[in-house]
Amino acid sequence: MNNRPPKIAETILSKLLYDDVWKTTLGDFEEQYSYLLEKEGKSKANRWYWSQVLRYAPSKIIHKLYWTAGMFKNYLKISLRNLRKNKSYSFINTSGLAIGLASFLLIGLFVQHELSYDKHFEDSEQIYRVVRERPAEQHQGSAWHAVTPIPLHSGLKDNFSHFDHTTYVSRYEGLIRMDESSFFEKGLYAGGEFFQTFSYTWLQGNPATALDDPSSIILTESLAEKLFGNKNPVGESLEIIPEYETEPIVKMITGVIEDLPQTSHLFFHFVTNEKSSSWHEGNLDHWDSNGYFTYAKLNKENTLNVDLLADITEYYNAQMMDLNYYGKQPHLIPKLAFQPLHDIHLKSSHLRHSGGTPGDIKYVYIFSLIGLIILLIACVNYMNLATARAVMRAKEVGVRKVIGALRSNLIMQFISEAVLLSFFSISFAVLLVWLFLEPFSSLINRNIGAGLFMSPLFWISVLGISSIIGILAGSYPAFYMSSLKPAGIFKSHTKGGKGNSLMRNTLVTGQFAITTILIICSIVIFQQMDYIRSADVGYTRDQILTVRIKDENFAKHYDTITQRLITNPHIVMVSSGESLPTEIQGSTSGVNWSGREERVQFYRNDIGYNYLEMLDINLITGRYFSEDFPTDAEQAFILNKSAVKGMGFTPEEVIGTTMKMWQQEGPVVGVIEDFNFLSFRDERKPLILSLINPAEYDYLSFNYLLLKVRPENLPETIAFVEKTVTAFSPDYPFEYSFLDDAFDNIYRTDINLGTLFNAFTILALFIASIGLFGLASFMMEQRAKEIGIRKVLGANLVQILTLVNKDFMKLIGLSFVIAVPIGWYAMNTWLQDFAYKISLGPSIFIAAGLSAIVVALITVSYKSFKTASTNPVNSLRSE
Amino acid sequence: MKLLTRSEEYILLAVWKLQDNAYSIPIQEKLNEITGKEWSLGGIYMPLERLEKRGQLMSVLSESTPERGGRHKRIYKLTPAGKKALREIYEVQQTIWAGIPQLMFGLS
Asked: Fewest CB atoms within 10 Å of the CB: A26, A380, A678, B107?
């Protein structure tokens, strides 16, 4: 039997009795306890022991706090005095730390935003999106597709009780018409149990039935307000024209939901019943349809284990085998996989048709790393400067020790000093965050930080971070300074011991190594982006105005409009196309020709007359599509060089070869040079072009109007185009852009990455430099007398500068040696993503190394020059 | 010299009587026995410490016993100054009580 007092109570008691003399009291209590135990039993004895402890505790705690607070008051006073006394040192330390903290906070906000996608749904960890790997449909190096057949959702729900709810959706844009106004909004077709799978916050309407009627529409709060003001919109109706359709559909509003958070991968302003779309209806039970996201919500008791996956695959394969196409080629049946909802935002870069503005887990990692690095550099500054100044404070430490301060008191003192400084810094950092939140948000293309300064979580983390940083940065100086021996301090002038300067040198070297790595990365990213932007893509993208056309009615007026446009003297050429040369996405393996052996995946595009001429795409042999050959339309083909090579022909041989793509059959009339219609990350691929003359169709057979314009009078030209186009489709907004902007948009993420990288690199270099500056000025103070004596003995300025800069330059040189291989490795990995890339020559590394050295040299020399050029009388006179 | 308080006086007397076994627990028991009231341990620590600081008691650490969880006892001993203080308070009481007992017994 256990005859000891309650363990916890005993521990508390022993902690409260701080003085050794009082430890016998513990024995007294225990003796009394065992006496009570024998006499009155265990529970009574325990109760007694506890009551003693509780009665004892308050006065002891207050006693302890009182004396600690007294000490802290003194620490605070001394810290503030020290900060005031060394203004430049305090400024360097606070601003460095503030910039570091601000960068860290901004990056933290970005990372937190990226990681919080889709977590706001109920049971969001139970929701999955079904994706497929389609071996027959390779696209830009991946065969994974985010889209699935419609019947999959009911198949899962009906045959597997593991799923509570399933739904299928597809994104679209609709032109919403209310009274006089009309505008495009992002919407969803949803079928199955959409609102059961995803829990939205409902302001009006019933989630269980809102979507039942085919004519129902559910709006977000902001859209409802835009259309109806403060009126209750439920029961009202509106007209909507989906993309690619001509007839407006009348919709009844059955519900209003709260606006979606920014962190939703499915972003929309309205939801309509999927059955309302005429051309979706045909696909409802077709397993060969392929254009819908399928989501499934697993019930809580189940996990997606191997057995369940195997059962689902078996069921699904059976359905696919029934299809003619896969029945004949079972090896081509797409493989199913379940992607957790939480992964969709960050881990979909391999998925085609995933849509939205996806993030990339890679950037989350890269930026987390940069944030930590900058913070680390700033902390190192603090540690360096504080330990360097230890000599100044040594006497204070000595006096405190002699008076009776314990080592733990001194550690406490220096850590609280660091925490105080870090609190100062974080106030500046918050100010910086406030200033730079907007530009930073637009650079990363995310709306972060809305309501940030109102959120208690932000302030708690700000306080938390600054305390942690203070403790981390303060701990090394604290341990170092508290280890000084009073006898040594008073006896002689100790110059911060050998171990101390080794530590300092290591830290400076590490700081500059990291900075040099960042400089290397910045240079490489900048050069690669510059290379892409100035590289010959194989077509001209200057002065090409593109107008997105969505109005089906436009087709009927195509000829009238183009003829009217060409009358303007500033418009040189007009053409049309299914896709812009920057974004040809469509591809097919359904191309045949006589003697075909290879299975070649072709990218394809339907283009109008003058398309190739306008873009200056060079002809190798044959001719462009021409109105002189009426049979060109819907019959003739033009191939690019890669396509000809893929087919196993030479350009001359292929002219006249009859080819068949789907229903279209005709001769190859021309071969063009390859041009980069894909991103520079990819090789140039086979391309097949056919001619569509939009004037011959009564439906919209193209997506873009392309106009070659003269550089003069651009605003008027654009206004003229707008007037002409909107005259025929008054309902539709005029959407235009220039081809070179569209081109830049493809690399937007990379360009922004480059800009951010540059910004953070400059910050890191700046922080490291001010650290070095502080260190250098301190060293100069220490060596002022030495330099004075050297000058008296006849040393000149150059000799003295060489002497003091030599030590620092050795460190910078060493950091360069460390940085080169790491920087090379990192950038080599990054460049692997690009099929067309710059080479990593030595000039990049030399430039990076030189810029670090020059900055360091200027920093150090500024101070050493000042010291070296003062009259030695001044430094030697005082003692 | 300041006079002893009533509790200090009792404690000093208890320590004297207990001789070699004068540590907190027996002191407490002795006090309970003398006064017929419950004394808390905390209530005797403070006067003990005060008396020791004033030099009227001295203490030594002695061997421990199992029921103390292996911890030392602090045994108190009266110093000459302690004895002197007791004698003083005794004399004061003699003086102040002179004649009173007859009065009291007369009343009761």
From this structure: B107
Complete DSSP assignment for A631-678: GGTTT-EEEEHHHHHHHT--HHHHTT-EEEETTEEEEEEEEE-----S
Q: Are A661 and A588 in contact (CB under 8 A)?
A: yes
Residue A337's φ and ψ, nearest 5 degrees, are: -150, 155
Reading the block at residue A875, the tokens are 């430094």
**Is the CB of residue A651 less than 8 Å from the CB of residue A620?**
yes
Sequence-ordered list of residues with C-beta below 8 angstroms from that of B40, at least 6 positions apart, any chain = none
Give me the pLDDT at residue A492, please: 59
* Cβ <8 Å between A26 and B69: yes
Mean pLDDT in residue range A866-879: 77
A63 touches chain B (CB under 8 A): no
Provide the 8-state DSSP code for A347: S
Amino acid at A549: I
Nearest residue, CB atoms, A30 vs list B28, B69, B74: B69
**Both structure tokens of A763:** 């910050």
- Interface residues from chain B to A (CB-CB < 8 Å): 23-25, 28, 41-42, 45, 61, 64-65, 67-69, 71-74
Q: Pick the more confident residue, A556 or B68.
A: A556
Weakest-pLDDT range from A160-169, A405-414, A713-722 = A405-414
What is the C-alpha separation between A179 and A185, in angstroms, rounded?
Answer: 16
Q: If DSSP codes are grouped into helix, strand and coil, which group holds residue A129?
A: strand
Q: Please tell me the distance from the alpha carbon of residue A390 to that of residue A463, in angstroms, as a whole number.
A: 27
The A residues from 13 to 32 touching B (CB cutoff 8 Å) are: 23-32
Q: Tell me the residue type at A681.
A: R
Minimal Cα–Cα distance from A8 to chain B, Å?
15
Tokens of A603: 């990218």
Residue B107's pLDDT is 53
Residue A282 is predicted with a pLDDT of 63
Nearest Cα neighbor of A31 from A11, A56, A15, A48 is A48
Q: Please state the separation of Cα A725 from the chain's center in Å.
A: 38
Tell if the CB–CB gap between B25 and A34 is shorter than 8 Å. Answer: no
Angle between helices B80-97 and B6-18 (to 10 degrees): 120
CA distances from A321 to A58, A144, A331, A376 (A): 78, 20, 10, 58
B68 closest CB neighbour out of A30, A55, A56: A30
pLDDT one-digit tens code per residue, A322-351 = 887 788 888 888 888 999 999 998 888 788
> Which residues of chain A make contact with B69, given a CB cutoff of 8 A?
4, 26-27, 30
For residue A498, is pLDDT > 60? no
pLDDT at A281: 62
State the distance between the two ends of chain A, measured CA to CA, in whole angstroms: 74
| Contact criterion met (CB < 8 Å) for B41 and A26 | no
User: Residue A782 pLDDT > 80, yes or no?
Assistant: no
With contact defined as beta carbons under 8 Å apart, do A294 and A283 qualify? no
pLDDT at A822: 93
Chain B nearest C-alpha distance from A115 (Å):
54
Residue-level pLDDT at A280? 61
Kindly report, residue by residue over A817-860, the tens digit of the pLDDT.
Answer: 999 999 999 999 888 878 788 888 889 899 988 888 888 888 88
**Distance from the B74 Cα atom to the nearest Cα atom in chain A, whole angstroms:** 7
pLDDT tens-place string over residues A232-243: 888 888 888 887
Return phi, psi of residue A564, to 5°.
Answer: -70, -40
Can you tell me the distance from the alpha carbon of A494 to that of A501, in angstroms, rounded to the nearest whole number?
Answer: 12
Most confident of A64-68, A96-100, A140-144, A284-288: A96-100
Q: Are A720 and A727 in contact (CB under 8 A)?
A: no
Residue pair A148/A130 in contact by the 8 Å Cβ criterion: yes
Query: Average pLDDT of chain A?
Result: 84
Contact A30 B45 (CB under 8 A): no
